[in-house]
Amino acid sequence: MVAHDLDSGENGRIRYSVTNGDRQSQFGIDPVTGYLAVQSPLDREMISSYVLEIQATDYGVPQLTTSVNVNLDISDENDNPPLFSQTNYTSFVQVQTLSILTVFV
Predict the structure, then answer these.
(1) What domains lie within the chain, and their CATH numbers?
(2) How far apart are CA 30 and CA 25, in angstroms?
């Protein structure tokens, strides 16, 4: 994240913060650089997208702020194994009529 302030000196310095959308404190932002980072594991099956409100505040008097929304869509990770719908399957086959056996599960 980068914001620009045309003021000079302290009035032009900017502090960044996440002000909304991070209900589980999973994201962090460097207050000086605006670098947004993930601080704890994300699980797309639990939350598939986030809208974070990022605020930039200058050090002037009075302090001035602006905000931007950052939309994050979480990609799925292969973290779930395939599952059978039943624990056991039973099939009966008559041997005398069997030429080719195909069992679909």
Answers:
(1) 9-73 (2.60.40.60)
(2) 14
